[in-house]
Amino acid sequence: LRNLIVVLGDQLSDQSPALDGFHPKQDAIWMAEVRDESRHVWSHKARSTYFLSAMRHFRDQQKSLGRKVLYTQLDDVSNAGSLSAELEKSIKSRTPGAIRLTEPGDFRVKKSLEETARGHRIPLQLVPDNHFISSNQEFEEHCRDRKQLRLEFFYRELRKKTGILMEGSEPLGGAWNFDSENRKSFGKKGPGLLPVPVAFEPDANTRQVIQTVEKWLSDNPGSTKNFDWPVTTEQARAALKDFIEHRLPHFGDYQDAMWTSQTWLYHSRISAALNLKLLNPMEVIRAAEKAYHLGRVPLPAAEGFIRQILGWREYVRGIYWKFMPDYLERNALNAQQPLPAFFWTANTDMHCLRETIQQTLDYGYAHHIQRLMITGLFSLLLGVQPKAIHEWYLAVYVDAVEWVEVPNVIGMSQFADGGVMASKPYAASGAYINRMSNYCQGCRYKPTESTGEEACPFTTLYWDFLDRNLPLLKGNMRMAMQLKNLQRIPGSELQALRKKARSIQESLHVN
Ligand code: FAD
Ligand code: SF4
Predict the structure, then answer these.
(1) How confident is the model at residue 183 (pLDDT cuts 50, 70, 90)?
(2) Do 229 and 398 touch, CB atoms closer than 8 A?
(3) Ligand 1 atom 31: the closest Cα is on which residue?
(4) What is the pLDDT of residues 376-414, one digit of tens each?
(5) Interior angle at CA 15, CA 284 and CA 312, nearest 5
(6) Is there an atom of ligand 2 within 6 Å of 443 CB?
């Protein structure tokens, strides 16, 4: 064999340069489903199903092109259980001249495959991933001579580089962002009739994967009963089209809003398809830009959506590769609480958390604000160990891959990086949740109360968070207003708040 072309579960693009010049007689594609990848941290059954189903569809598509694919299934009796052990077996039996691999998105996987190749003295050709708009090198250059990194500046550079939503060197519409027009709540009336996203019934391939996952990963969390995700490029394009036509026009307006029993709202549901490389981000961005130029979506909606992909998605990848592996060890606020057990069961009387976690277990999905301002916020305020909450996020979402999950969790939501990602902690009380959703209406707690029987745990823990982290936060100008309000609380009330906060923490340990 000349080249063994390793294709990982999140590299399922038929446009990958690793496949350029593929020789049908001398080269082979190598893919493996291994238990380690669903077990090194737990993996939601829908997440494992997504990866395995998309991999098997990719395998079949490549085979239909006449390409040889060496493929190990999860339930193969001889499956060695880890990527490196499986690869070693193939190296011994096939003696390839070289291994070719698209740059992995995961630090741990990259290291382990590099070691395997080195151990067998086989040249490893790393091919750049063409599913990103910027390179790690560009990000490094962006960081040079900057004391503080901020998404906004990187995003503007990428707007200029790509020409997306640009008029010469100026942003279309005269502004780089339209946040002041976006981010509404549904108010008292609620969202009304919402467009139902296109669903993809599991085909025979996916049904077989679901059976395997239910058998081999039976102890893993989550359910496969609602699985209707796009698992091929063709389906992912249909999902994108459906979003652009029916939900993008209101994406900006309601991107931060939440509503009981409404899982999808105006979100795109394409993160996993992007992360598995079924879709190319530039294709998605151009589709949104085109919809704006055709007059089908307002500029704030198109810009708000494009910013998520051209901005945030590229930015977090840059952060991941620049700061790993020690980024994962960061704990700037010295948070030491364990993860509450209800994160795995949704068994809590806090309605916002119950809704968000139950939906997560049912679908492997929660939208950005549910992740940041419900589960992430609670964990930040409670003071959960960053690594414990990181492992939860990596486990429970269908789109969870380390390079995007880690900066979002360790940096944006937990402020464990001390301000690399975000200029201040996303700390808020129950009042924010009350403003952006109707969760509080169905809750036994009151978002305005911070002590007493009906005190909302978010509100109690919010003040306690500011109080206990005061020494670390007081130098941060962006926290000045919040800290000023803390100082207005009379001493006796603060004592009662602290006591209440300790009792919440203790009650969660008992769970
Ligand atoms: P939409 O709301 O429709 O947004 C469009 C696209 O923009 C998404 O598909 C995604 O590709 C991109 N995007 C939006 N926000 C971000 C962001 N903050 N960082 C990177 N890309 C973004 N996203 C993942 O893909 N995998 C993760 O493991 C992940 N973990 C997260 C953990 C936390 C604590 C937080 C706060 C966010 C996380 N995100 C993650 C980002 C975001 O929540 C999801 O991408 C989004 O909810 C996916 O749903 P959607 O496709 O409907 O997105
Ligand atoms: Fe969540 Fe507090 Fe509102 Fe209940 S009252 S839904 S716990 S924010």
Answers:
(1) confident
(2) yes
(3) 405
(4) 999 999 999 999 999 999 999 999 999 999 999 999 999
(5) 35
(6) yes
pLDDT band per the 50, 70, 90 thresholds, residue 35: confident
CB half-sphere exposure, 17, CA atoms < 13 A: 10
**pLDDT tens per residue across span 62-73:** 999 999 999 999
Residue that has been written with the tokens 């999902």 in this structure: 239
Q: How far is the CA of 374 from the centre of ligand 2 (A)?
A: 9
Q: How far does the centroid of ligand 2 lie from the alpha carbon of residue 258, in Å?
A: 13
Q: Using an 8 Å Cβ cutoff, are 404 and 317 in contact?
A: yes
Instruction: Give the pLDDT of residue 40.
Output: 67
Chain position carrying tokens 């931060």: 256
Q: For ligand 2, what atom is nearest to the CA of residue 443?
A: 4
Look up the CATH number of domain 3-127: 3.40.50.620
Q: Which fold has domain 136-195+247-323?
A: 1.25.40
Percent of the chain predicted with pLDDT > 90: 94
Provide the residue ranges of all domains of the chain, joining segments of one domain with +.
3-127, 136-195+247-323, 341-510
- CATH 1.10.15.40 given to domain 341-510: no
**Pocket test residue of 433, 461, 463 for ligand 2, highest count of atoms within 8 A of CB:** 433
Mutation test residue for ligand 1: of 253, 267, 268, 271, the one with most atoms within 8 Å of CB: 271
Is pLDDT of 511 > 90? Answer: no
pLDDT above 70 (res 38) = no
* DSSP letters for 199-257: -----HHHHHHHHHHHHHTTTSSS-STT-----SHHHHHHHHHHHHHHTHHHHHHHTT-
Read off the pLDDT of residues 224-280 as tens digits, 9 standing for 90 and up.
999 999 999 999 999 999 999 999 999 999 999 999 999 999 999 999 999 999 999
Residues 6+ apart with CB under 8 A from 470: 483, 486
Q: Which residues contact 498 (CB under 8 A, 6 or more apart)?
A: 464, 467
Q: Is the CB of 439 under 6 A from ligand 2?
A: yes
Residue closest via CA to ligand 2's atom 8 equals: 430
Tokens 């769970």 found at: 511
466: nearest Cα among 445, 448, 480: 480
Atom of ligand 2 nearest to the CA of 446: 5
477 Cα–ligand 2 center, Å: 28
Proximal ligand: closest to the CA of 455 = 2
The CA R_g of the chain, rounded to the nearest whole Å, is 24
Which tokens go with 110?
């990259």
